[in-house]
């Protein structure tokens, strides 16, 4: 990925875009295939030509969201050149930017995990675990070097991720702060949670 901070429209086919819109407005269980078809400008049989079930639509949306986030997160980590504190700060920045710019995708990722069937939930959970482990690895390294002094660093790392993933519950495109401003504040919050007392990572 050339620039993990740069966001445009994510590529969703008309069915997935309609499904995402419906899931955000009415929830997964409230959305009907008929309504999704109407939003997409297709017939119900036309929808089933693309996706066999509504569950397939939800899984595909969450797969795309996690692939986008993980790709950006790995690029952010690479930018740190092995500095664990800087990598942690960049990963937090990346998380917040994603949850601002991809608010609808992130909101569904948070609110509709319970709607996934068991095998599908396990698949998305594995991707979310991979995201958490990116953070955990940098926290562990910063603790070993004495730069993070949180008493319970793994608990603190989970708290940081939870704080970031909650952003879609309140952030809107017309908010007075830009995504970049929110991300900068959250990086400072996260470093405070980790009891980091050094200079802010460049």
UniProtKB/TrEMBL annotation:
<dbReference type="InterPro" id="IPR036271">
    <property type="entry name" value="Tet_transcr_reg_TetR-rel_C_sf"/>
</dbReference>
<protein>
    <submittedName>
        <fullName>Unannotated protein</fullName>
    </submittedName>
</protein>
<feature type="domain" description="HTH tetR-type">
    <location>
        <begin position="9"/>
        <end position="69"/>
    </location>
</feature>
<dbReference type="InterPro" id="IPR050109">
    <property type="entry name" value="HTH-type_TetR-like_transc_reg"/>
</dbReference>
<dbReference type="Pfam" id="PF00440">
    <property type="entry name" value="TetR_N"/>
</dbReference>
<dbReference type="InterPro" id="IPR041490">
    <property type="entry name" value="KstR2_TetR_C"/>
</dbReference>
<dbReference type="InterPro" id="IPR009057">
    <property type="entry name" value="Homeodomain-like_sf"/>
</dbReference>
<dbReference type="GO" id="GO:0003700">
    <property type="term" value="F:DNA-binding transcription factor activity"/>
</dbReference>
<dbReference type="InterPro" id="IPR001647">
    <property type="entry name" value="HTH_TetR"/>
</dbReference>
<dbReference type="Pfam" id="PF17932">
    <property type="entry name" value="TetR_C_24"/>
</dbReference>
<dbReference type="GO" id="GO:0000976">
    <property type="term" value="F:transcription cis-regulatory region binding"/>
</dbReference>
<keyword id="KW-0238">DNA-binding</keyword>
């Amino acid at each position: 990925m050339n620039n993990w901070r740069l966001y445009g429209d994510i590529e969703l086919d008309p069915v997935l875009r309609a499904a995402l819109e419906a899931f955000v407005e009415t929830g997964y269980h409230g959305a009907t295939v008929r309504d999704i078809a109407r939003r997409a400008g297709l017939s119900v049989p036309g929808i089933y030509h693309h996706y066999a079930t509504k569950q397939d639509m939800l899984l595909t949306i969450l797969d795309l969201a996690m692939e986008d986030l993980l790709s950006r997160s790995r690029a952010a980590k690479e930018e740190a050149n092995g500095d664990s504190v800087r990598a942690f700060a960049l990963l937090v920045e990346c998380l917040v930017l994603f949850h601002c710019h991809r608010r609808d995708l992130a909101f569904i990722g948070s609110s509709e995990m319970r709607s996934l069937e068991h095998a599908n939930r396990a698949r998305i959970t594995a991707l979310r675990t991979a995201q958490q482990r990116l953070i955990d690895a940098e926290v562990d390294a910063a603790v070993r070097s004495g730069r993070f002094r949180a008493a319970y660093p793994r608990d603190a790392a989970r708290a940081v991720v939870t704080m970031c993933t909650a952003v879609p519950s309140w952030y809107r495109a017309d908010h007075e702060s830009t995504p970049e401003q929110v991300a900068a504040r959250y990086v400072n919050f996260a470093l405070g949670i980790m009891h980091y007392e050094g200079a802010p990572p460049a």
